[in-house]
Fold:
Amino acid sequence: MNLQENISLELLNTFHIAAKARYYSLIKDAHMLQLLLKHPFIQNLPKLILGGGSNILFVKDFEGWVIQMALEGIQQVEEDSNHILLRVGAGVSWHQLVVYCVNKEYAGIENLSLIPGTVGAAPIQNIGAYGVEFSEVFESLEALEISTGIIKKFKKDDCAFGYRDSIFKSSLQGQYIILYVTLRLSRQLTFHTSYGVIQEVLAAMQVKELSIQAISDAVIHIRQQKLPDPTLIGNAGSFFKNPVIEQHLANRLKNEYPNLPSYPQADGQIKLPAAWLIEQCGWKGYRHGAVGVHPHQALILVNYGGASGQAIYQLAQEIQQSVAKKFGINLVPEVNIIN
Structure:
């Protein structure tokens, strides 16, 4: 049975927390997973699905079964003059997929360049960046129901996608394991350059003719400038979601803080940048021992080396408390906290 015991997870999470898994399996095909799930011993264990470990904080050891998904493959399943459908294994690196699509001139995910993690995690989180969300290119996924071992197909309407959210983070959390994701990419090149500083970077790069390669290069440049490399400094990217609040609350805060950036949403609510709120509370660049807040991006909590998950979690709670006290806003972690 492909079941290892007392495995260190330090190299399997981008925070580099030295937690251990009581049991661990690397899953390379769906049939292997189905067989393991039928085993009586395994059926009663707490289960944790792990992709690239880029959106998780281990506050303590995991006293159950860590399942690391490593299903590979990028398969073209359908195409016409306007679109192409790709079926991708859950274990494929997300950025590897973006590079593949950019090289083939399949448009739609170039703005999501350099996001860490795997394809299997993308629909759970509904990842997004620079004006584009994963759900915009999502076609369907195949997921294994843990309780029955049956593989079910989910279409877009089944997934209840929201801002950094899906049904797999709410009513179906912990019930399914994603195996394959099918994306609908475009052959018609539509460029998304209005978000953030993409246009400024494209100009600085002296791009004469816009392309998805140029947009991908610009996004990579921006991310490398503002975000720490997790291979050098332990982190999980943005730790908190950007809060979305009612218009009347945004108006009150704007009166008190005229420089507060705000972004109207389609439903009439207002999205605020969590990084700005955190920075106003004095946390940007904070460091205590091995834990801290990155000096260039207040949304990123970092492990400078040897920090415990508990220490990072405590820092996150202190940040939440200070933002709530100053602005009356409760920041919600984007990172999956295992405690």
Notes: The chain has three domains: 4-69, 74-186, 234-338.
